[in-house]
Amino acid sequence: MDPSRFDFLLNRYLDAELSPEEKSELQTVLLSDPEARRQFWRDARLHGSLRLLAEQESGAHEALSDVEKPGRNRVGHARQRIWFGAAASAAAAALVLFLGLLLTRPLDASAALQQVIDAAGQEGDRTYTVSVLKGNPVRQISGGRALTLEGAVVHFRGKDRYVVIQNLTDGERQRTTGFDGEESWSFIGNGAVNVSDDPRRFRSNLPGSQHDFAFTNLHHELESLGEGYDIQLRDGEDAGMRRLSASKKSRDVRGPREVEIWFDPDSGTILKLELYGLPQGRGGPRAIRLSLTDQRDLGADFFSHTAHHEAGRKIRTEPSK
After folding, report:
1. pLDDT per residue over 233-242, tens digit each?
2. Range of the domain at 84
3. Does residue 170 fall inside a structural domain?
4. Which of 77, 236, 306, 319 is within CB 3.0–4.6 Å of 241 for a Cys-Cys bond?
5. Model pTM above 0.85
């Protein structure tokens, strides 16, 4: 929305002059735009402070006249108590304004999707476990080796950092792949670490990678849903979650045929993500599920390859293209 339009709507709301159509317009912006919500909170709190102080002006003068005043210090403390009381009331009033505006209208599908996208871009760490729902969980890779996606663990931080840990079918080794915000990297077992400045370099063995929906950059991939998919908001399996259902608008859209997202309605955090109709050009599963298992801080260096192998490991850095 044009910032001037938002300022106009916000001022009309604070002055109790919004029409029903304008209120709906303002609600839509607040539900989808974190910066708009922050501005609303700031302005509503200031507006509440000024209004409450004006209302309490006569009471403040009366309170000051009753204070024993051997010096200015007692007067200053009285003023401070009145100010803090008014400020606390103003903050409460602003919160009532904020919640009252949002809770009078349930999230629609587009606003709910934006809430999930915003949450996926936050810096907090999230860990998911992968389950294969349909199709073959095993994929052949070079050297006669094979990877299984069943039981893989995926860690996310922010918009694009990730680590994926998959087991090889030999039962002894793992393939660890990641992106630390600057370099992508990958290694198997005790082998050399391959490093590239291409964020997509080592995603080819993940389902959906052919269509740029390999679940390693959820923020970007979720944004694509708003353009190429029909989105519906549904009830979750319990009161602690909501569900978004996304289906392709046409076969020309790249990505899974259907996406199901269960999320926390308060934070927008994805609790469960299911991808159906994954591309089958290279085999692998046709449907998978990512289930949230942890949200603990993984440490500053976790998304660097050095956090996942011993010192002295051979590093092979690919030339920039």
Report:
1. 987 777 778 9
2. 3-105
3. yes
4. 236
5. no
On whether residue 110 sits in a domain, the answer given is no
Which ranges in 122-253 belong to alpha helices (H)?
218-228
CA–CA distance, 178 with 302 (Å, rounded to integer): 10
Find residue 259's DSSP bridge partners: 246, 275
Cα(298)–Cα(104) distance, integer angstroms: 38
Are 187 and 299 contained in the same domain?
yes
> What's the token pair of residue 78?
């009285």
CA count, 13 A, side-chain hemisphere, 296: 5
Three-state DSSP class for residue 39: helix
Please enumerate in sequence order all residues whose Cβ is within 8 A of that of 79, keeping only pairs 6 or more positions apart, or say none.
60, 64
Nearest to 285 by CA among 180, 100, 170, 131: 131
> Among 231, 229, 233, which residue's Cα sits nearest to residue 241?
233
Long-range pairs for 87-94: beta carbons < 8 A, 24 or more residues apart: 87/49, 89/48, 89/52, 90/45, 90/48, 90/49, 90/51, 90/52, 90/53, 91/45, 91/48, 93/44, 93/48, 93/51, 93/52, 94/41, 94/44, 94/45, 94/47, 94/48
Domain final residue pick, 52, 85, 105:
105
Q: Which residues partner with 263 through β-bridges?
A: 242, 270
CA distance 101 to 256: 36
Dihedral pair phi/psi, residue 199, rounded to 5°: -60, -25
Is residue 179 a contact partner of residue 297, using CB atoms and an 8 Å limit? no
Let me know whether 15 and 74 are in one domain: yes
